[in-house]
Amino acid sequence: MVRNHPGFGLEPTETTPHETTGHSLAITDIGAYTHLSQADIEAIGAELDTIRRDIEESLGEKDAAYIRRTIKFQRSLELAGRLILGCSRSRGGWLLGTASLAFAKCVENMEIGHNVSHGQWDWMNDPEIHSSSWEWDMVAVSSQWRYSHNYRHHVYSNVVGVDDDLGFGIMRITRDIPWQPVHLLQPLRNILLAAIFEWGIALHGVHAERDRAAGDTEQLTRERKTLVRKIARQAVKDYVLFPALSGRRWRRNLAANFIANLVRNLWTYVVIFCGHFPDGAEKFTADVLDEETRAEWYLRQMLGAANFNAGPLLAFSSGNLCYQIEHHLFPDLPSNRLAEVAVRVRAICEKYDLPYTSGSLARQYLLTLRTIYKLALPDRFLTATSDDAPETASERKFA
C-alpha cells in the first residue's frame, strides 16, 4: 500500500484503513479503466511531477504577498461588517453588515483556513500563516481536521470503505454502499448537513481521532475536550460577546452572526459536494491501494475529483476549489497557482484521452443532488444497471 506521496500536509501513520466487503461495483483496476499501459501511467506521473517542481521552484514574494493581502482583506471585511452591525440602526445597514460578515467568514474558511491548513504556505516559514499554528473561525478543530482530511481523505481519496469523506458516513453516494432503510432519510440528512456543515466537520474530525487513538482512551478524551473548548470559544465569540457589545441592538447582532455562519456553512457544503460527488468523480475499491505507485495515486486523484467552471471572483470565493482536480493532485501547492496548473493538467488529460470532469456550478450541484436522492432508494427501484449508472463506473463497463 502506498505510504509516501507529496503534498498531504501530514505525515502518514500506521493506521490501517477499513476493509471493503461484498461484491464491488467501483474501479478495481485503474489501468484497465483508463486503457493505459503501465508505461503511460508512469509517463503521466513524470509529467505531473514536472508541474509540481515547476510551481515549487517559482514560488516567491508575489505568492507570499497574495496570501498576506488576502488575510488583510478578510480581516478588514469582517471588522467593517461588525462595525456596521454595531453602529447602524437601519435595515439596509444590517443587511450590508450581515453580508460583509458572511463573505468574510466564507473567505476565511475556504481561501485561508482550508488552504493554510493544507500546508500550502508553510514554505514561507511564517509562524502565523502555517498549518501547524492556524486555527480557523468555526467549531471544528484545525488539528483534528488535518488528520481526517489531509491524511484520511487525500491519501485514500474516494476509496470505498477507507475514505471517510465518501458520503461522510451518513449518505449513500455509490452503490458500493449497501442500501439500508435509513438511507430513505438522506434527502433530509443532506439538508441538515448543509445547514450545520461546520458541526459535521467537527464531529467528523473527532470521529477520525477515535480511530487514530486506537484504544488510547486518554488521548481520545483530550481530543474531545479540545473540541468542546473550541465550540465554547466560537459560541461565546459569535453569540455572546459581539451581540453584548451592540447593547440594545444585541438581537440584530445575534441574528446577523447566526445568518453569517449559516451562509458560510451552506457555501462550503456546496463547494465541497460539487468537487466530490457529481457524475465523473469516480470511486475505487481498496484493491487499487495494493502496491499503488506515485503515478497511480496521481491518476486516482484525476479520476476521483471534479471541477466547476469559475471566473476570478467565484474562484476566490470558493478557495480556488473550483480546481478540485488540481487541488487533489497537489494539495499543498498554493491555491492562487491552481488556475495555471489546470491548463497543464487539462492538456495531459487530452494527450492521454483521460476524462477531465468539469461543468457549471449549477450543473455539478444538480448532478450531486440527483445521486443523493436516487441512491436513497433501494437498488431494485433504479433503472440503470450497477455497471452503467452515471454516478458509478468501473472497468467492467467495457466488457
Automatic annotation (TrEMBL):
<feature type="region of interest" description="Disordered">
    <location>
        <begin position="1"/>
        <end position="21"/>
    </location>
</feature>
<feature type="domain" description="Fatty acid desaturase">
    <location>
        <begin position="94"/>
        <end position="358"/>
    </location>
</feature>
<dbReference type="GO" id="GO:0016020">
    <property type="term" value="C:membrane"/>
</dbReference>
<dbReference type="GO" id="GO:0016717">
    <property type="term" value="F:oxidoreductase activity, acting on paired donors, with oxidation of a pair of donors resulting in the reduction of molecular oxygen to two molecules of water"/>
</dbReference>
<dbReference type="Pfam" id="PF00487">
    <property type="entry name" value="FA_desaturase"/>
</dbReference>
<dbReference type="InterPro" id="IPR012171">
    <property type="entry name" value="Fatty_acid_desaturase"/>
</dbReference>
<dbReference type="GO" id="GO:0008610">
    <property type="term" value="P:lipid biosynthetic process"/>
</dbReference>
<dbReference type="InterPro" id="IPR005804">
    <property type="entry name" value="FA_desaturase_dom"/>
</dbReference>
<protein>
    <submittedName>
        <fullName>Fatty acid desaturase</fullName>
    </submittedName>
</protein>
